């Protein structure tokens, strides 16, 4: 066994490099997806359309990032990075505003929070 596993030893250098790139992209995606999903859930309570839009931009930018990195190597990802970073900086802003709005409603229990959420849905 090599340090990369028994299956990658048979790939040759080019195959190993492609596998390594795919693995790096996957791990890079996993580093941020939990934060993005949590922020999308919270932000979506108050700003559903904005959340869907930013989420779609994030998904497209991550796909662009992946394709660029696989085809052109590390330099290929640089075209998508501004869009990925824009969404990763935009979500916390809308999430904090959404949390502030929910906190200003004054719900102190889960039952009250459910009532507030139902009122918000009826108001839209």
From TrEMBL:
One of its GO terms (cellular component) is nuclear envelope. It holds the Pfam family MAPEG. GO terms for biological process: leukotriene metabolic process. Coiled coil: none annotated. The chain crosses the membrane at residues 36-59, 79-102. The keyword Transmembrane helix applies. InterPro entries: MAPEG, MAPEG-like_dom_sf, Membr-assoc_MAPEG. Keywords: Membrane, Transmembrane, Transmembrane helix. It is a multi-pass membrane protein. The keyword Oxidoreductase does not apply. SUPFAM superfamilies: MAPEG domain-like. GO terms for molecular function: glutathione peroxidase activity; glutathione transferase activity. It is found in: Membrane. It comes from the Eukaryota. This is Uncharacterized protein.
């Amino acid at each position: 066994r090599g340090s990369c596993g028994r299956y990658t030893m048979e790939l040759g250098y080019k195959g190993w490099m492609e596998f390594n790139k795919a693995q790096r992209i996957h791990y890079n995606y996993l580093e941020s997806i939990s934060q993005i999903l949590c922020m999308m859930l919270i932000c979506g309570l108050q700003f559903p359309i904005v959340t869907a839009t930013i989420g779609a931009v994030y998904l497209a930018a991550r796909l662009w990032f992946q394709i660029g990195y696989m085809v052109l190597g590390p330099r290929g990802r640089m075209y998508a990075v501004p869009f990925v970073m824009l969404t990763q900086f935009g979500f916390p802003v809308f999430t904090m505003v959404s949390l502030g709005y929910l906190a200003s409603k004054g719900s102190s229990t889960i039952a009250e929070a459910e009532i507030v959420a139902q009122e918000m849905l009826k108001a839209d």
